[in-house]
Amino acid sequence: MALDHAILVSLLEQPGSGYELARRFERSIGYFWTATHQQIYRVLKRMEADGWIDVREVAQQGRPDKKEYSVAALGRDALSRWLHEPIQPESVRHDLAVKIRGAAFDDPAALIREVERHQRAHADRLAHYLAGEVRDFTGPGAPAPPDAGQELQHVVLRGGIAYERMMLAWLDDVLATLHRLRPER
């Protein structure tokens, strides 16, 4: 997926400035696609030149004017074409899995700290996703009933939650195996 399509989806959900888009990528779109501020601004500039997005200046009191981006007809057409194109299922490239297999030729116990570090990172991401789910979909301020866009956002988030839970279960299994293979002291 190109960053272009992630930006188009975000702007169709809600027009906004480059800064607001970057915040969305940090908060919710980042569940499945990450981008730096520089990448977002570079793609916005290209999409504007290609006619995919419209830009309007918004006056702000006490601050410089900001640019607010929205999707133009050409952008909707580009997104529609992309949505109707088949994509290949993603293949997994997992550096940690290769390290784990390679540990058979070294000291498997040497990976314990690395696996624990990955475990903490996945636990933190899961906690972030679960907090976002309560904030945006299941908590007291959540819209009821949700519209189609919110339902689809939530199903993507649930996929991220399921993935993080699966990773944590696998990392528990890896740690148990590494501990079992640890030489007696």
Automatic annotation (TrEMBL):
The record's InterPro entries line, in alphabetical order, gives: Tscrpt_reg_PadR_C, Tscrpt_reg_PadR_N, WH-like_DNA-bd_sf, WH_DNA-bd_sf
Q: Which domain of life is it from?
A: Bacteria
The family database entries (Gene3D superfamilies) matched by this protein are listed as: 6.10.140.190, Winged helix-like DNA-binding domain superfamily/Winged helix DNA-binding domain
Which ranges carry the Transcription regulator PadR C-terminal domain?
Answer: 92-178
The Transcription regulator PadR N-terminal domain, residue ranges: 7-80
Q: What is the official name of this protein in its record? A: PadR family transcriptional regulator
